[in-house]
Amino acid sequence: MNKVIVVTGATDGIGRVCAHSFAKNQDELILVGRNADKLAALVYSLQTTGAVVHSYIADLSSAKETFLLSETIRKNHPKIDVLLNNAGAYFDQHTLTKEGLESTFALNHLNYFVLTLGLLPSLKKAGEARIVNVASRAHMGVSLDFNDLLGAKDYSGWKQYQRSKLMNIYFSYELAERLNQTKITVNCLHPGFVKTKFGQNNEGLAKILLTFAQNVFAISEDKGAETSIFLATDPSLTSVSGKYFVKKKITKSSDESYEISARRNLWAYTEDLLKHKFSFKFPGF
């Protein structure tokens, strides 16, 4: 049966590969991207396959835009089978979004949280639905400082990126537990070190080093997308939830990622931030 699948970060890298794979299955696609021209080109290429494709332009580093996006998608698509949270980036220098939040935290963590909770009513209406969060093995070796989650002190782009990927895993595990009485599964994954445009938003040495590493060590985009596609579509995973996958296999994430108090503190911190800074109310949760 054809599925309705949301893909964020759809215009480049893993997201684009996933979109093409889903289109070949004749799934109905809801694609989210920031660049209008890239998104239009992708939609055109996918429509030639006969797939039904919808597109939405949004800056997912903006909590307000992400929240409004979730409302629009929910209104236009009352039933969603799969949400693939794929959009993310690495920021070598400390930068703030237009809402005054640290960019890595806003895009890599807050985006997943806001969009997912906003789309839960549509996911629930699908019956058996899946939430797939692209994390990274980069989460290994770090913990969260709840006195400085926004990276205001002694900013390190790499450390902040690592922590954001740990946040993705905490979010996945906590949401899976909160949805354990439903037929919605939540899983996360490490895609591998993939040769994409990751890090090209930076300048100077960071861009040079990332480009070199990708040219020498990285796997292809097609290979990097395999686990995301597997988690989104494989029938064997209907009842598998709250797991971390590497190369399509359940794998142990870092010891820190299983700290229940830390993951619940992150959820509470995020809820409190969204409530007091943005006054968001999420339906049906």
UniProtKB/TrEMBL annotation:
Keywords: Oxidoreductase. SUPFAM superfamilies: NAD(P)-binding Rossmann-fold domains. It holds the Pfam family adh_short. The keyword Nucleus does not apply. InterPro entries: NAD(P)-bd_dom_sf, SDR_fam. GO terms for molecular function: oxidoreductase activity. The keyword Oxidoreductase applies. PANTHER family: PHOSPHATIDYLINOSITOL-GLYCAN BIOSYNTHESIS CLASS F PROTEIN (PTHR43157:SF31), PHOSPHATIDYLINOSITOL-GLYCAN BIOSYNTHESIS CLASS F PROTEIN-RELATED (PTHR43157). This is SDR family oxidoreductase.
